[in-house]
Amino acid sequence: MKKNKSPFNGYDTYAEVNLRKLRDNFKIIRKVSNKNNPDNNTKICAVVKANAYGHGMCRIAEELVDSGTDYLGTAFITEAVELSDYFRMKRKDPKILCLGTMTDDIDHFADVLEHRFEVTLSDIKTAKSLNKYAASNNRTIDVHVKFDTGMNRTGFLSGDIYEAVVSLLKLKNLNLKGIYSHYSTAEIPGNSHSKEQFKKFKDAVIGIEANLVKFELKHIENSGGILNFRDNFCNMTRPGIMLYGYYPDRSKLKEAIGIEPVMRMISKVSLIKEIPKGEGVSYGRKFITKEKTRIISIPIGYGDGYPRALTNKSKVYIKGKLYPSVGTVCMDWIMADVGMKDSIEQNDKVIIFGHEYSADELAKLINTIPYEIITNVSDRVKRIYV
């Protein structure tokens, strides 16, 4: 679509992504990651999975690379391939680590060899197949060993990790570059399970490094881990949600570090109607006007990732004031009650969420987390980088 001169650039609803705030958040996270580290050499693996938490993976990744991130983290091989292709076009070659566990899949093996990103191993069968494929192509692949310290999702279990490394070291076309784990409750300061997870990780890695192999990279700290359990035994951190300006759990936050939301979801007032008392609004008549009022229609709905569960619960921000959304959230529309007094006009800007009214607020209304609100923003919503 050709841009026009309106503030909406031709789009009724769009996501404004503030790259300066992203860079500022990254600098803050790097500083916190280096807390109590006199050498200031902690590496950062910036997690850009799930379309960079809804912000647009490739453009966000490029900004993070330019800001100095050491790695980019993806969840799937397909994401790593997409990033690799994008940076080839840009003539850049950042390090990419696929955090999703590798499976015995010949097509994925071919992708790894072609694009030269690093991968995660969680089982010996896949490792042997990957090693065989690499050997047949006269190549060596950098891998990270996933250690399950209590998340019980992926990775080698505590009782198996030492022997797993013994077996992996026999596979000469795999280079054991890193070892890592993942916290399950790190958003809670002082949490005993997180402390137990870290102890398992540290004790096992010390034993492995004393007897088998030294790892270039050791990492366990996600956003919550960086905030609450940072330990310089690990030389890389993996920030995710904090890059985009949100804390893992704001209600349990011990200390704010100054990050700000990077995305504002913006729409506009498309239509204003005066509605008499006793009229229903939207599907199912789940909102009935209690008096004469003005109902505005806003072109955003669950087709754009705005949860239908927010029906009659959320607010929208217009000209410095919050107004209640009313009626069932539609695929393409939500409505809001702006009363009869305030000066609201067609094409006025509507903030759906952002620093004025955060995704945290929306998440609380439907008992979810801000991760879900921002990653739900659909491809129909144009990302505009500022």
Note down, in words, how this protein is organized.
The chain has helices spanning 19-33, 49-53, 57-67, 77-89, 106-115, 124-136, 161-168, 192-211, 223-228, 359-365, 370-375, and strands at residues 14-17, 43-47, 71-74, 95-101, 118-121, 141-148, 156-157, 174-180, 217-219, 236-237, 263-268, 271-275, 280-281, 287-288, 293-298, 315-318, 321-326, 334-337, 349-353, 382-385. With 386 residues, it is an alpha/beta fold. It is elongated, with a radius of gyration of 24 Å. Helix 1 (19-33) crosses helix 3 (57-67), helix 3 (57-67) packs across helix 4 (77-89) and helix 4 (77-89) runs parallel beside helix 5 (106-115). Strand 13 and strand 14 form a beta hairpin. The strands form four sheets. Strands 2, 3, 4, 5, 6, 7, 8, 9 and 10 form a nine-stranded parallel sheet that branches. Helices cover 30% and strands 23% of the residues. The chain has two domains: 19-251, Alanine racemase (TIM Barrel); 263-385, Lyase, Ornithine Decarboxylase, Chain A, domain 1 (Beta Barrel), CATH 2.40.37.10. Mean pLDDT is 96; it is low at 1-5.
**Low-pLDDT windows of residues:** 1-5
Annotation, overall tally of beta strands = 20
Helix fraction bin:
25-40%
Gyration radius from CA atoms, angstroms:
24 Å
Tally of individual helices: 11
What is the average per-residue confidence, as pLDDT, rounded to a whole number? Answer: 96
Largest sheet: 9 strands, parallel
User: So what's the overall shape?
Assistant: elongated
Q: Any idea of the CATH topology of the largest domain?
A: TIM Barrel
CATH superfamily of the largest domain: Alanine racemase
Give the termini separation: 18 Å
Oligomer: single chain
* CATH class category label of the largest domain: Alpha Beta
Count of distinct structural domains: 2
How big a fraction of the residues is strand?
15-25%
Label the CATH architecture of the largest domain.
Alpha-Beta Barrel
Question: What class, by secondary structure content?
Answer: alpha/beta
